[in-house]
Amino acid sequence: MPEVQGLLGFGRPSRGIAPYAERSDPRGNAVDLWLERRLGWLEARAPLLRRRLLRRADQVMALEPEFRALSDDALRAAAQALRPRLLARRRGDVEALVRAFAAVREASDRVLGKRHYKVQVMGALGLYEGRMVEMATGEGKTLTATPAAVVAALAGDPVHVVTVNDYLAARDAEETRPLYGFFGLTVGVIDSDMDPEQRRDAYRCDITYVSNANLTFDYLRDRIALKARRGQARHRALALTRGGAGQPLMLRGLAFAIVDEADSVFVDEARTPLILSTTADDPEAAQLYADALALARSLTEPADFRIDRMNRQVELTEAGKRRLTERARAARLSGLWAIRLAREELARQALSALHLFESGREYVVREGKVQIVDEFTGRIMPDRSWQGGLHQMIEAREAVEVTGRKETLARITYQRFFRRYMRLSGMTGTGMELAAEFRDTFDLTTVRIPRHRPLKTRQLGATFVRDEPAKWQAVAERVAALHGAGRPVLIGTRSVEASQRCAAVLEARGLPHEVLNATQDRAEAEIVAEAGRRGAITVATNIAGRGTDIIPGADVLALGGLHVILTEFHESARIDRQLFGRTGRQGNPGSTEAIVALSDELFTRFTPWLRRLALRVPVRPVLWALRARAQGRAEAEHALTRREQTALDRQLERALAFSGPTE
Amino acid sequence: MAESFLSTLWYRVAGLKPRLRPHVSVHRHRYRGQPWYVLHDHASGRVHRFTPGAWMLIGQFDGSRSVDEIWRALADVQDNHAPGQDDVIRLLSQLHQNDLIRYQGSPDVADLLERHERNARQIIKQNLTNPMSFRIPLWDPDAFLRRTLPAVRWLTGWAGFCLWLAVVVAGLATAAVHWPALTGNLAERVFAAQNLVISLVTYPLLKAFHELTHGYLTRARGGEVREMGIMFLVFFPVPYVDASAAAAFRSKWHRAAVSAGGIFAETFVAAVAVMVWAAAEPGFVRAIAFNLVLIGGMSTLAINGNPLLKFDGYYVLTDLVEIPNLAQRANKWWGHVVQRYLFNARTLKADPATPGEKAWFAFYAPAAWAYRMVVMVGIALLVAQRFFILGVLLAIWSVFNSVVKPIAKHLRHVVTSPSLRKVRKRAVGLTFGGIAVLALALLLVPLPLRTDTEGVIWLPEDAVVRAGSGGFIADLPVAEGAEVARGAILARLDDPPVETRVVVFAARVDEARRRLQRAEAEDRSEIAAARVQLAEAEAQWQRERERRLRQTLHAGVAGRFRPAIPISDMAGRWVGEGDIVGHVLPPRAEVARLLVPQEDIALVRERTRAVEVRLLGRMDQRHEASLARSVPQATAVLPAAALGEVAGGRFQTDPADPEGATLLSQAFLYDLALPEALADAPFGMRVLVRFDHGFEPAGWQIWRRVRQLFLRQFNA
């Protein structure tokens, strides 16, 4: 268990008002949070926790001969026998815990043919304790999660293994299903296309593999189904008197979650709240947005509006507002156009749609629909849409059918949702620099698990070129050279659009390649499977950055392994490292390099001044400083946004307290 | 953030059916020509002001229609000015925070508890951090006021006002007649033990009368007065009454009348007291009357009635100019001006205000701040004169409250406020750049360092013509104002006994000499005694001859003779030995003798670069001068009465010394050689002297003074 209510609080966790287990929202003050941050930073770097995990892992390893001697049935029986102990004395009974872990380790060897390494056992123990476990990329996080999930499920907790998308949820579940089956535990997988009944069934399993968005949406659906009748007693009374509490609930409680790629979920995606909405019919919508776009096109920058690219906002100037009023009157527009605030908002959105959003970067048009591309994973998020009419505005711009306006039913931030878990744990490859934030926002202590085998990747550093065409040429030359040597190459791009441009350049050179981006994720598994083969060239968006296990062939390893080329630095160095982590997995050889252009958005947006200097004086120190400063500023900016968002969320809740309990 | 029309949070409020709580009454007021809706919460006694725009929503909160319905209906009717969803949510939140609405369903209990806790904490915190407003409610005076009102009702209208006016005018007239007697030596009398003891009794009584007046005026105009209690004003208990119901009155004159009640009451008492004081014999009655004049009159003028402090006068002003919350809004307006125009935060929204209000804001905030500082520091200094530690504590507290705390708050705002996020760089740069420039200016930019002091044109000691011995003035050979050379005879004194004594002693010498001759011839054993006799006689004779010589008065210096009394009155007059007969004024003034206070002596001694002198009466002319005597000498006595406070000089003298010549603290004497241009300066005239010590940054100069202040206070 993590320190209940932080190290500074005492007593049992206070339960939230819900029919099933969950925590109430914490109400820390500024001083507490500040201390928690410092403490989180410190604890992540002090080796105390790691030593304890190491000691216990040694105990688990020591039990190997004893369990190896047991037959399958005896092993199963031994695990079952531990259940009462796990159930009764969860915190104190270290021996039961160690034995249970040893049993899972043995079973894993028999069923999956993979015996957990010591570092994996350490990681699993950390997860079971409710920690943020940092394990190097390629150390087998999928397998690491299994002992913790099994033991928690044996102890009776509904376990949620949270992944960043459906594909990974399904893949991980399939990989580990036999192990759970061995202990008689059921595994459910949630897919976005499932109907409520199927979802309910999946959640009813002992262990559920689910993507973070699906899980959160299902929780919101529960909250809506409950309305104000949330208390356990009230819920049960209703069930008694009416023979059922209305709509049955999806989840069985927020008992234990293992969040894979936790930095992505807790930090990168946590910038926007999740919003559950319905589509309202609005027959005049199409015309409204068309008018707005027409009006917006007649406005000019900077006289009428200004664009704040760093914060991605459009501001109308006073002159712009006047012109808007005149134009709207001249065009004899009525309805919403007559209302000043509505008019200006429409104009702002139209301007954002025209100037801030680009097809292929923020969204793609597929099957006559505008679909959002996740900035961090590069995947398409089919069920998501932008708020407040922006989505419709973009649909109008792309001349596809304008969908109805979304009306919000419920919203919640990841910060708020995940903190409600009675026990939360996370796995990530890159979590150290976020340790403080994990602590103050999610009450998670970060612990770094050592590598199983030393890293054998060679880092070839970064090459800076002037502009984008030069970049693709440089990439193509590099790829051609490596391809000639027979090594497989993975080229990471930041957007769908970039991946297509890269592909075009490779095409022109006659280099055979595969493109893996948001528009064709059906074939994802096959492309990934091929990517490690001799001479393979794969162009991928961030999609390949997380959870993707590219297995290089034996002949390839002899040649030097997979080579990863990063073509644009991300706003966070973490994500760069994630991509580089695709090679050199489990101690394999490999090499990485970055080929970036000085015209990349990261530099123009965050360090315009230093960029100009770098263009004039392209020497090493300047270029290094450029990268460090740009990513540093971007990260600081995002961290600030997240903190402000959390504060704003709390403030909002306080202001909206009159509207009854929150989601 | 730019204001938006649709809100993603709308779903939270759309279905609510709010209604105003039944104990909230609504009044329509006009402020500066604009209609406003005033919601009076009878439960808390608080009053809230809303625009007609907000009222269009609030007015429809009847518990039967949902927020969404109301908003849609409003958006249909109000074209250009329809409120956005965010506006509606903000309004609802505001109403909820002030407990003005209720709605179906259970509220967020956790939030309710948190709010309750926060409020409770807030009150404790407020009481602890601000002893000015430590309030203990004790009593609901409404029934009492209601019962006793008939007896005093006639006083609460025009009749009372006329009576007040008449008495106050009479009081003012009396005060004007006795002004010097009333105000002489004020600080001494205020802090006299007797006066303080009287204050302990009169102050609470007077304040009780003051508060009752508020209460009656409110009650007479139909407002309820539900709370009365004790407030600790700097740990001094005084009664207070909660007359906030008056804010709901429609007429601003009625509102102002209630606010002014305290002023009416206290000035009335003070006016009566001043008349009693003028008529009474010195004694106990007079002391009490004086005390009442002081508390009722002075404190009303300086504090309670002054609109620049947040007491009664302020509320009268805000009522009359129709700007409620003037002080608060003025501060906010300034904050907005700085952020919007200096920091260039273009998205910030200003609170609505008419141009007239803005003019008030622009003036009021700095004026109030400056006045508050002056009053605070003034009180602290006044108290420090008598009770040093208390005064220093008071000064520290007031400086902390009105300088340190606001600055810290503003800096925090600049560094952390989300509203300044986009312009943070500029805001931080300007703020800290400004502070840095100021600090650098204080520490580095040299400013002239000077010491100003005073001296007199010094008449040399030789110039005084003193009678060397007593005598009648027999002869005055020199006319008044005549030029005399050094050594010239100015007067002859005649003292017949001296002549006689000279003759007698001459005879005695003769006799002694003869006796000596005889002794030498006849009796050699007598020689020694005779010699002694002779020497004695010769000495006496010599002394008398010298005295005769001194009867001729000579001029010690060359110059013009000026007798002490008109020459015509002089002849035959007896003057005693040492009496001043007159002066010989040198043709030009050579020296000015100045006094340098102890704290400046180090600077003057070590760092004087140049000396500049100005003559009183010819202040426009500055003259270079040089020090004639640079070895100073400490003195506790004024070299000339003209330098003393009594004579208009700058040096404080001991009040116990009737001649006003003893200094309160030691000072050093310097002589200054006067330049040619001041040769004709009249002797004894005061001169202003400025020692120039070159340049030094202001910071160091201030630091030196503060250090001296503390050293002096703690050494004393």
From TrEMBL, chain A:
List the Pfam families.
Answer: P-loop_SecA (PF21090), SecA_DEAD (PF07517), SecA_PP_bind (PF01043)
Name the reaction it catalyses: ATP + H2O + cellular proteinSide 1 = ADP + phosphate + cellular proteinSide 2
Top enzyme class, one word, equals translocase
Q: Which GO terms describe its molecular function?
A: ATP binding; protein-exporting ATPase activity
The listed locations are: Cell membrane; Cytoplasm
The EC number(s) given in the record are 7.4.2.8
Q: Which InterPro entries match?
A: Helicase_ATP-bd, Helicase_C-like, P-loop_NTPase, SecA, SecA_DEAD, SecA_motor_DEAD, SecA_preprotein_X-link_dom, SecA_SF2_C
One GO term of the biological process aspect: protein import
Say what the protein does: Part of the Sec protein translocase complex. Interacts with the SecYEG preprotein conducting channel. Has a central role in coupling the hydrolysis of ATP to the transfer of proteins into and across the cell membrane, serving both as a receptor for the preprotein-SecB complex and as an ATP-driven molecular motor driving the stepwise translocation of polypeptide chains across the membrane.
Subunit structure of this entry? Monomer and homodimer. Part of the essential Sec protein translocation apparatus which comprises SecA, SecYEG and auxiliary proteins SecDF-YajC and YidC.
Q: What is this protein called?
A: Protein translocase subunit SecA
Name the gene. Answer: secA
UniProtKB/TrEMBL annotation, chain B:
Q: List the keywords (alphabetical).
A: Coiled coil, Membrane, Transmembrane, Transmembrane helix
Query: Does the record bear Secreted in its keywords?
Result: no
What Gene Ontology biological process does one annotation of this record name? membrane protein intracellular domain proteolysis
Coiled-coil segments on the chain, per record? 502-547
What's the protein called, per UniProt? Peptidase M50
| GO cellular-component term (any) | cytoplasm
MF (Gene Ontology): metalloendopeptidase activity
Which SUPFAM superfamilies did the record assign? HlyD-like secretion proteins (SSF111369)
- Indicate the transmembrane segments per the record: 155-179, 230-250, 256-277, 284-303, 369-400, 427-449
Q: Lineage of the native species?
A: Bacteria, Pseudomonadati, Pseudomonadota, Alphaproteobacteria, Rhodobacterales
Q: Which InterPro entries match?
A: MBTPS2 (IPR001193), PqqD_sf (IPR041881)
